[in-house]
Amino acid sequence: MIGEFLSQYLVLSKLGAGGMGEVYLAEDQNLKRQVALKVMPPEMAEDPERLIRFQREAEAVAALNHPNIVTIHNIEEIQGKRILIMELVEGHSLDRILSPGGLPLPGCPGHRRSAGQSADGGPREGHCASRPEARQHHDPS
After folding, report:
1. Domain membership flag for residue 139
2. What tens digit of pLDDT does each residue of 21-73 get?
3. What are 76-87's pLDDT values in tens digits?
C-alpha cells in the first residue's frame, strides 16, 4: 500500500498495527495535511460483527472532544477497504512507552484520572493496562 492512493490519500508509510487493523501515515491531497489511516484487514471486513465493532469504535471516538483523544475525521469504504481517517498525532507509539505489563502502579492514578477526564470530563477508576494500538503516534525519527 505504500506509495498508493486511497481516494485522495497518498499512503506514505506504515505506522503500526493493532487488533482492528493497520495504521498508515498518509497525505490528504485535497487538504494538504498528513493524517493517519486505520485500514481494516479484508478478512475482518467480511465479518459482520467486526464491521459493527469497527463502526462503534469510530462513533465512540468521534463523539469525544478532548486533547488526549485523537480526532476522527471520517470513516469510509475506499477501493473495497474499510478505513478510519484520523488526526495524525506526533510522538512514540504506546508500545514503545509502556512495558508489556502496563503502567507501573505509582504512575497509574494520574493516568487513570487523565483517561477518565478524557472520556467524560470527570475522574474515573480503571485498570492501568493499555493496548498499544489504541492510539498510534508518528515517530519522525
Report:
1. no
2. 899 999 999 999 999 999 999 888 889 999 999 899 899 999 998 888 899 99
3. 999 989 999 999
CB 47 within 8 A of CB 82: no
Structurally, the chain folds into a number of domains equal to: 2
Interstrand relation of 33-39 and 9-18 (parallel, antiparallel or unpaired)? unpaired
CATH number at residue 75: 3.30.200.20
What is d(CA 84, CA 53) in angstroms, rounded to the nearest whole number?
12
- Name the nearest CA neighbour of 40 among 17, 15, 6, 63: 17
How far is residue 62 CA from its own chain's centroid? 11
Antiparallel, parallel or unpaired: β 5-6 and 9-18: antiparallel
Write the DSSP symbol of residue 69: S
Q: What is the pLDDT of residues 113-138, one digit of tens each?
A: 455 454 454 433 333 333 344 444 44
On whether both 12 and 78 belong to a single domain, the answer is yes
Residue 98 structural domain: 94-134
CB 9 within 8 A of CB 27: yes
